[in-house]
Amino acid sequence: MIDFWLAAGLLLLVALSFLLIPVLRGRRAQREEDRTALNVALYQERVAELQAQQAEGVLDAAQMDSGRAEAARELLADTEGVAAPRVSKLGKPLPLLAAVLVPVLGLGLYLHFGAADKVELTREFAQAPQSMEEMTRRLERAVAAQPDSAEGLYFLGRTYMAQDRPADAAKMFERAANLAGRQPELLGQWAQAQYFADGKKWSDKIQALTDEALKADPKEVTSLGLLGIAAFEGERYQQAIDYWNRLLAQLPEDDKSREALQGGINRATERLEASGGKVAASPTAKAAALLKVRVDLSSELKGKVQPGDSVFIFARAVSGPPAPLAAKRMTVADLPVTVELGDADAMMPQLKLSNFPEVQLVARISRAGQPTAGEWVGRSGPLASSTTAPQTLTIDSPDQ
Length: 400
Fold this sequence. Notes:
Elements: H1 2-55, H2 61-79, H3 93-113, H4 116-125, H5 132-145, H6 150-162, H7 166-180, H8 184-197, H9 204-216, H10 221-233, H11 237-250, H12 257-274, E1 290-297, E2 310-317, E3 326-331, E4 337-342, E5 358-366, E6 376-379, E7 383-384, E8 391-395, E9 397-398
């Protein structure tokens, strides 16, 4: 902030110069006027002496006129170049008073309407915090400087939750939700903070918040996770399993929290079965995909292939990555053959048939044993990955 105040002081000096320079010029003009008045007084005194000498008979009329002319020339020489006196309507006190009031008034207005605190916060956030406590202090100052910032309130609430201060976090999320229009994510965070602030006791307020969040967004993850926790703590294991399965369906395959969430589902399942219950199928759980396809060779190609040529049979997503979702390898000698392609045949865990709504079946003959390029190919049209009816695929076209 030092450079800011230095710049402000420099600008203040420039502003004061416009007020003080006229005052200094006025003093100079006053000195010139005083000197002129002195010269006039001396001229009048010289003329009076000449007149006294003439009266005594020392000077005649010609000498009197010559002396008077000489005194007039001296007066003219002394007053030559002096500007005419300027009359100020404002007077001297007003500029001096303005010179004092301008900086005082400017400082007062800046301290009231200025943004020095925001400038300082910007400087602080430009540097990485050294600890969680320092980050919390920065966010608290940011919220104090911008109390209408829903984003600042949200991040401060998340920080309070990380510091195990759920009561303070609930207040921040409540303010953020009211400012941002009660968005589902904020409502879910508010409900979660309130739940832990109340000592993990479910209440009508928390229920209302989660209901409002899921009504606006049925996939709101914080509310689903919280409802699962509350159901598990209340020994309502089937509800916990259902909520957590809904949450699991929203998480990416590579999300690190999936493992912990699946562990919670497994524990709820064990406790439900130990109490004599039976786990009901979740309405949102994805059924494992399994496609049955019969692959044959067209009669035109039977004389153009060899029994040892490789046959790659796979399914790939219509809209998605080009990599096969499920694949099996056979030979021409095995044709015609019926195979099953399912989630168990996935090339990668995150690329399963059940994760994509539409797929295409492909059968390729490759003499070199390359699954990505060959001599002959057969392709199906798009079909749902949940299809259970057997499919037929004929290899009948050159692979291009």
